Amino acid sequence: MPTDIVMPQMGESIFEGTITKWLKKPGDKVQRDEPLFEISTDKVDAEIPAPASGVLQDIKVAEGNTVQVNTVVGTIAADGEAAVATPAPAKAAPASQPAPASQPAPASPDRKEAGSATPQASAVAQKEVIQFPQEEDHARSSPLVRKIAREHNVDLSQVAGSGLGGRITKQDIMSFLESSQAPSTPARSAGATAPAVATPAPKTSPAPAPAPFPGELVPLTQMRKIIAQRMIESRRTSAHVHCMFEVDLSRIVNLRNKMKSSFEQRHGARLTFMPFFVRAAIIALQQFPIVNASLEAENIRYHRHVNMGIAVALDWGLIVPVLKNADELNFLGLQRGITDLGERARSKKLKPEEVEGSTFTITNPGQFGAVFGLPIINQPNSAIMGVGGITKAPVVVTDSDGNDSIAIRSLVHLTLGYDHRLIDGAVADQFMALVKKTLENWSEEVG
User: Fold this and answer.
1) HEC letters along the chain
2) How does pLDDT run along the chain (447 residues), one tens digit per residue?
3) How far lies 353's CA from each of 41, 275, 350, in Å?
4) Distance CA 278, CA 387 (A)
5) Fewer CB within 10 Å: C terminus or N terminus of the chain?
6) What residues are labeled active site?
7) Beta bridge partners of 244
8) What is the rounded distance in angstroms from the CA atom of residue 64 to the CA atom of residue 221?
């Protein structure tokens, strides 16, 4: 019996999705959990895996069409039962008319995340549908970490912890297993037969879309429509003001040059500049909680934690994944979290809840050579910090005796875009002065 492929519900407030690309064509063989098609929603762009192994029998909804969640978009026939493949419709009408564009009220950044929602069973009764695993409820808990360690014969004293106070998290031990070539099969009693180990598929980055021909009229992608709408809304909502500070980053540049090789060898992760900026911002946000707050009607919401949004430039747009509870992570935890979110953003592996609930955002136009940027606030945040390019320049330095001299220093220009309805200029300047001081006098362990 053929297996229906349905449009999944990628989050509580997501009611429809647009198929942007089919990765297989009718008649192609597919394996269960192999990427089958790509979708775009109000929250994320994502690759959707095949719900079963077999042959892609037909495509019911063509690329570019928007349908409601749980709509059947294609079918997979088991090997041996597949008939002649039905070609994809040239101009497919959606299997069901798309729901009217809804405007759900934005969730409070502090609300408890419910995890990925699964498609409604009533719409696909007796069918095998795409399922998305829930977040591990106790992913940061010690019992889970100890269980994984026992299964893989890992000595936890060898694993560097990225949690508060050096606590070992699930991500820490999984990164350790990947980087140290630890045994990949669970521990078993003597004489047991070793199970076959599945080789994970290599990570691939989506190819950029072909450049349009000169004079060609190209419709906006779903992501570009959402970006356009949110940027205009942010400009209309917040009273944008910017301030800029020049920061001497020489100490951090020298530290990174000295530590980057050993850091990667020990932890299996590249040492980048971003966690330095994130950590400095967290320290300042803890001192100036109004910058980490949100305006809700005539009230101010002071957030308990720093949920750090980190803008990631993609070939097809921009997305802001969120590092939740970043204030509870040490430097290693920040680096691992930033790297993980960036990689999964580029490979369309983010979950809807991973782009929600930010309380402050950092964007990095400097990676493309910009001296500085004047970024638009990421709603409902009240501020966003832009990181310019790091360049060497001659500056006047004063020694302890008060003597001036000219020296070469590594400089970066940091800008803060803030909502003047909530944050006064004096507070914004004091916030950035503390960020500058933290970076110029960096003293934390990098690992």
Assistant:
1) CCEEEECCCCCCCCCEEEEEEECCCCCCEECCCCEEEEEECCCCEEEEECCCCEEEEEECCCCCCEEECCCEEEEEECCCCCCCCCCCCCCCCCCCCCCCCCCCCCCCCCCCCCCCCCCCHHHHCCCCCCCCCCCCCCCCCHHHHHHHHHHCCCCHHHCCCCCHHHCCCHHHHHHHHHHCCCCCCCCCCCCCCCCCCCCCCCCCCCCCCCCCCCCCCCCCCHHHHHHHHHHHHHHHHCCEEEEEEEEECHHHHHHHHHHHHHHHHHHCCCCCCHHHHHHHHHHHHHHCHHHHEEEECCEEEECCCCCEEECEEECCEEECCEECCHHHCCHHHHHHHHHHHHHHHHCCCCCHHHHCCCCEEEECHHHHCCCCCCCCCCCCCCEEEEECCCEEEEEEEECCCCCEEEEEEEEEEEEEEEECCCCCHHHHHHHHHHHHHHHHCCCCCCC
2) 888 888 887 765 577 888 888 999 898 999 888 889 988 876 678 888 888 899 998 899 998 888 888 899 999 998 766 544 445 454 444 444 444 444 444 444 443 333 334 433 333 333 333 333 333 333 334 556 776 777 777 878 778 776 655 667 767 777 777 776 544 444 433 333 333 333 444 444 445 556 677 888 888 887 888 889 889 999 999 999 999 999 999 999 999 999 999 999 999 889 999 999 999 999 999 999 999 999 998 999 999 999 999 999 888 788 899 999 999 999 999 999 999 999 999 988 888 889 999 999 999 999 888 999 999 999 999 999 999 999 999 999 998 888 999 999 999 999 999 999 999 999 999 999 999 999 999 999 887
3) 13, 22, 8
4) 11
5) N
6) 420, 424
7) 415
8) 9
The type of residue at 252 is: I
- For tokens 């999944």, name the residue: 8
Compute the residue count for the chain: 447
